[in-house]
């Protein structure tokens, strides 16, 4: 297997060098194997460092010019990932973050072993594709700054869509009570086993990412350390038949996962076991839940 990997590296390095020579390009070569040129500098920007949550715009093409995705419209929210090993697919975009200050733009020339490797997706991504990526690193966030940023996104979404009835919890979850549930019976506490019907989607989307069905409610032990944080916070002290909608910031939900560009391939990567979480990190989610049984 090591011999196979070495052959892949040698092949990609050769093809990438031939591409650069053919097009009279002289970017800087890195020890990791990708190349970069800095297209615009921002001396007053803030240096991106290890652990930062980074916001970026980008365009991804193969060296043959095939467009995989263009996300350069800065009127849209920047796409976020954490600048740590394993924080982003393709990896080289993440690696180059450490060379950048906020507001700077790069062109990256990336061998497939630092991109999608031998992964393929329909006709969009072919195996062993070497890439040319335009990327602008526009922002970075600490954990505290990300919480404020996401809360602003939620507030703006509620105002723009004239949505009312949501109450913000102390932890930052915006909750709307659809039903208080049964007037009698015991409310849940730590250790209670509850069966719920639920739907999870991205904020503003009708398409479910994950959902139960009436015939297959999901069972959860309230207070379990294996639960997502927002479940323990919102399913404690509720009664049978209670029903809620909520907007959940990522630090209480699905923050700890690699980001994937383009977003389109995430489900496929999850189904094939390349990422362990189907929900994207670093953005709020919509969660609707009904408690159908308490034990």
Automatic annotation (TrEMBL):
Residue span(s) of domain PPIase FKBP-type: 51-141
Pfam families: FKBP_C
Annotated SUPFAM superfamilies: FKBP-like
Gene3D superfamilies found in the cross-reference section: 3.10.50.40
Enzyme class: isomerase
EC number: 5.2.1.8
Catalyzed reactions per annotation: [protein]-peptidylproline (omega=180) = [protein]-peptidylproline (omega=0)
Keywords for the protein's UniProt record, in alphabetical order: Isomerase, Rotamase
Gene Ontology terms for molecular function: peptidyl-prolyl cis-trans isomerase activity
Record's keyword annotation contains Isomerase: yes
Keyword Isomerase: yes
InterPro entries per record: PPIase_dom_sf, PPIase_FKBP_dom
Family designation: Belongs to the FKBP-type PPIase family.
Protein name as catalogued: Peptidyl-prolyl cis-trans isomerase
């Amino acid at each position: 297997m090591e011999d196979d990997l070495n052959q892949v590296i040698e092949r990609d390095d050769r093809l990438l060098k031939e591409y650069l020579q053919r097009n009279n390009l002289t970017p800087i070569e890195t020890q990791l194997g990708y190349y970069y040129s800095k297209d615009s500098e921002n001396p007053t920007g803030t240096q991106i460092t290890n652990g930062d949550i980074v916001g970026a715009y980008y365009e991804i093409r193969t060296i043959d010019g095939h467009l995989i995705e263009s996300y350069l419209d800065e009127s849209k929210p920047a796409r976020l990932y954490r600048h740590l090993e394993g924080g982003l697919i393709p990896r080289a975009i993440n690696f180059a973050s450490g060379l950048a200050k906020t507001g700077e733009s790069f062109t990256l020339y990336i061998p497939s072993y630092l991109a999608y490797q031998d992964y393929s997706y329909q006709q969009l991504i072919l195996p062993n594709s070497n890439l040319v990526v335009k990327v602008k690193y526009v922002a970075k966030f600490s954990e505290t700054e990300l919480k404020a940023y996401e809360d602003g996104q939620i507030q703006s979404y509620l105002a723009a869509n004239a949505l009312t009835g949501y109450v913000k919890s102390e932890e930052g979850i915006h909750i709307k009570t659809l039903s208080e549930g049964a007037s009698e019976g015991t409310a849940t506490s730590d250790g209670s086993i509850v069966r719920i019907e639920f739907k999870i989607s991205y904020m503003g989307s009708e398409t479910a990412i994950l959902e139960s069905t009436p015939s297959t409610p999901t069972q959860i032990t309230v207070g379990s350390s294996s639960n997502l944080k927002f479940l323990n916070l919102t399913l404690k002290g509720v009664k049978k038949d209670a029903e809620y909608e909520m907007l959940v910031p990522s630090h209480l939900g699905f923050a700890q996962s690699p980001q994937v560009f383009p977003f389109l391939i995430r489900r496929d990567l999850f189904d094939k076991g390349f990422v362990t979480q189907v929900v994207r990190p670093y953005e709020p989610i919509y969660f609707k839940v009904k408690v159908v049984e308490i034990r």
